[in-house]
Structures are given as C-alpha cells and as structure tokens.
C-alpha cells in the first residue's frame, strides 16, 4: 500500500479533530477549576469563564458514540518536531452530577510516536464537573500525522463505560 493510502485514516482523524474544535466551547458552565493528578491546585487566571483554557480542542472520539458522563480536550505545548519531546495537556471533563467514582486512562502511542510519560493514570473520588488534568510527553519519531490514543474507563454509580479518543499531532522534520 502506498504511503498516501496508509496516511489517509490519520489525515481524516486530524481533520475531524480540527473541524470539531472550531467554534466549540464547553457546555459545562459549572466547571470552575481543573485539578492535576493530585487534584490540588486551581487553574491560574487566563482560562475561559468555565475554567478551561479556550485554546484546548476536543479529542476525537473513536467509538463514534458520545458519553454524557465525560468529555476530553487537549492542548499541545509546542509544535511537534521529529525527535523533540512535546508536552500535551489532556483534560478529562466529568459532566456535572456525573457521579464518577473511578477513572482509569491508558495512553497508547501510534506508529511513529514514542511515549515518555506514564502509560496508565488511575484516579478515584472525583468531584462532579471538576476537570482532571494530565500532562503527557511524547516524542515524534517521524514526520506526518501521528496519533496518541487515550482509552478512558469510568465507573459512575452502577454504570461502567469505556471510550477511546484520538489525539492527532502533525509532526514536521524541523527543516520546514
């Protein structure tokens, strides 16, 4: 299969992420701050009125089915360049009154992407409507559209659901 044909699904995912991010804002007005892994600090000023950085974009839900329990957004700290680490801020946003008791996120890098951060994140006793922030560092190994997948498993009341999200990155070789 030719390289353009192999890249077509990745380009489609990247375009879907870009299109879905255009003009969207969170529908959760009750969100006032985000928590890091330790849920210790409120976000600094400069965030949107809902406490979420307005530069964050929605991750692409690979399952095709939405969840009323949570959503996911991300932001790159810098433009991805081959062999240069890039930090990604990932935000899992529980819906107000979702009642999420447990959250497990597994990060899986796609071809051409190396993960330098922890692969698994495990949290419990989450606050309703309080976003959970995770910093993830990846290193592109090749130029082009690369994917970081995040599978999120949540337990809320008697429900347990799983959703997989794609976080697309467009890496350059640094000479462009």
Can you describe what's shown?
The protein is mainly β. The protein has a single domain (3-171), classed as Immunoglobulins (Immunoglobulin-like, Sandwich). It has one helix at residues 3-21; strands at residues 57-58, 60-61, 70-76, 86-94, 100-109, 113-115, 120-124, 132-140, 144-156, 159-171. The strands form two sheets. The protein has a five-stranded antiparallel β-sheet. It has a five-stranded antiparallel β-sheet with strand order 2-10-9-5-7. A hairpin with a 2-residue loop joins β9 (144-156) and β10 (159-171). The longest helix is centred in the N-terminal third of the chain and has 19 residues, at 3-21. The model is unreliable at 10-46 (pLDDT under 50).
Mean pLDDT over all positions: 76
Global shape: elongated
Radius of gyration: 16 Å
* Biggest sheet architecture: 5 strands, antiparallel
Assess the beta-strand content as a share of residues: 35-45%
Which structural class best describes the helix and strand composition? Answer: mainly beta
The CATH class, by name, is Mainly Beta
CATH superfamily: Immunoglobulins
- CATH architectural type: Sandwich
Helix count equals: 1
Across the major sheet, the strand order is: 1-3-4-8-6
**Number of individual domains:** 1
